[in-house]
Design a protein that fits this description.
Elements: E1 2-7, H1 12-15, H2 18-27, E2 30-35, H3 43-52, E3 56-60, H4 75-80, E4 87-96, H5 104-121, E5 125-130, H6 133-146, E6 151-153, H7 160-168, E7 172-175, H8 185-193, E8 199-201, H9 223-234
Parallel strand pairs: 1-2, 2-3, 3-4, 4-5, 5-6, 6-7, 7-8
Length: 237
């Protein structure tokens, strides 16, 4: 059984041909999918997808790119979206200092509210982090010390500091198609060190299609390539 632990089925590139995408996922042995959220406005469509496809579950959260639009959000606002049984996590959320589409102080403020919602609900936190290793590691560690919570670093491509901090608080680390890219040797070495029981796989579709499909629109069926490559890194079949 395979699970695509992070995909964007609501994205236009995937949603426009969703029936075909889901058929290919089934044919590839991908039994479950977790549909990520980045805007509260997406939740109705995410729930619609879950209700049409019972093997899809979803998240509710604010992507750091969208933090400015939700600068005043509170954990209570997030928790209102968790009343639906299809919502099984908070996210994706976090920090993105590569694009800086939202001011960093606003990203941090919103991220802290997402963490608080995870702490209050008991639902796992799905963290996006890019070029923000120090702040991500420090905020996760500090928040966990205040009140434990669980979660995953999705599409892990950061330095070891983030992985180390995440593993110390019991988080999972998710591998995307990036591990198959030629330039990703440092990342592959990091995944060698991450315990097998703390690993997940994902597509982050429609982004980051793995080799040998790089450059195409990604979809959940392609998680088989990432899983196979991760097995190779770990010395498993």
């Amino acid at each position: 059984m395979l699970v695509d632990s992070h995909c964007h089925l609501s994205s236009e590139e995937v949603y426009s041909r969703l029936d075909d995408v889901m058929n290919r996922a089934a044919g590839a042995g991908v039994d479950y999918m977790l549909n990520a959220g980045g805007l509260f406005d997406e939740l109705p469509l995410q729930l619609e997808i879950c209700r049409k496809y019972p093997n899809v579950f979803t998240l509710t959260g604010v992507h750091p790119h969208n933090a400015t639009a939700y600068a005043g959000i509170t954990a209570e606002d997030v928790l209102k979206n968790t009343v639906y049984h299809e919502v099984v996590g908070i996210g994706e959320c976090g920090l993105d200092y590569f694009y800086d589409f939202s001011p960093r102080d606003v990203q941090i403020k919103v991220f802290r509210q997402m963490i608080k919602a995870a702490q209050e609900s008991g639902l796992p936190l799905v963290v996006h982090t890019r070029e923000a290793d120090n702040d991500t590691a420090e905020i996760l560690t500090e928040s966990y010390q205040q009140k434990p919570f669980k979660g995953v670093i999705h599409c892990y491509s950061s330095g070891w500091k983030v992985a180390e901090a995440a593993l110390k608080i019991g988080f999972y680390i998710s591998a995307s198609g990036i591990i198959t890219f030629n330039k990703s040797e440092d990342l592959r070495q990091a995944f060698k060190k991450i315990p097998l029981q703390r690993l997940l796989v994902e597509t982050d579709s429609p982004y980051l299609a793995p080799v040998p499909l790089r450059g195409r629109v990604n979809e959940p069926a392609n998680v088989i390539h990432t899983a196979a490559y991760l097995g190779k890194i770990k010395g498993l079949d």
